[in-house]
Each structure stands twice: as C-alpha cells, then as structure tokens.
C-alpha cells in the first residue's frame, strides 16, 4: 500500500482528478478488504474490481461504505447491465481484447452506452484497450467519453501530417514577415 500511496500522491500532484486502482484477492472478503485499504489512500481513488461473482459481491459491500467503483473486465452488454445494477461508477470494457477474440468490440460497446443512456444511469464506460484514434472517434460519437489509451495511441492523436505541414507553413510565413 505504501507504494500505491506514493503513486497516488504523484498522480494527484501532476493534476489527476481521480486515480483508478485495482483490488486483488480471490474472494469477496479479500477484495473488500483490499478495496477499503485502497479507498483509504485518498478520496479521489476509484477502486476497480473484476466483474466476477466475488467482485460484484465486494462491490456491494464497498458501495455501502461510499467507495467509488469500477467493475472491470467487461466484455458484454449484460455485464455492463450487471455493473449498473451494482451501482458502479464505471464499467470498463476492453475494446482491443474484444476485437482480438473475434467480437465486434465497437458494436458491443455502443450497445452498452445505448443501454446506459436509455436507463438514465450515471454510470460511465471507461473504454480500455483502445488502439487507435479512429476507435475513440467512433465511440465518442456514440456517447462514450472516458478512455484509457496507450502512449502509441496518444502519439497518433497528434500525428496528422497535414497538421504538421500547416504548422510548419505558418512558422515559415511568420518568419518571412519578420517574426522572431
């Protein structure tokens, strides 16, 4: 826990608004105990739990203590429904892994978001395993607003060649007008 406390302090000092930390332990009791310890590190911690029987049971116990929760490892819309029923703040589907398994990841996540919207739930999807800016755009256009992305995907967000060409042309134009 000491290492995680230092990590949390560093994240918050860099401007993070919240930090998601996953609990561990094979039983509901252990997940609950670790989840309480994680939540005690800082009020901005969101405890992640797997969407297993033990994870959902621990979620109910933690929720009764006011702990903010993410149910993770979500691969189907019915699991997102379960996360909503457990009053999770977030459900975390793994887009890339869904696609790797031959599923239509985007389609399944859109179904999840439509269900959340239709039911008026405040739960948000934390879309993980995102591998391209196109995935972000496709899902954002359908209401998803929270993503975890790799450094490579982040680089792609700024890697549009036409943008770089336009910026370089602006700098040349400014220099030709005497800007320094």
TrEMBL record:
**Is DNA-binding included in the keywords of this UniProt record?**
no
What stretches pass through the bilayer? none
Q: Which residues form the signal peptide?
A: none
Biological processes, Gene Ontology terms? carbohydrate metabolic process
Pfam families the record matches: TAL_FSA
**Record's keyword terms, sorted:** Schiff base
Q: What PANTHER family does the record tag this protein with?
A: FRUCTOSE-6-PHOSPHATE ALDOLASE 1-RELATED (PTHR10683:SF40), TRANSALDOLASE (PTHR10683)
Per its record, how is this protein called by name? Transaldolase
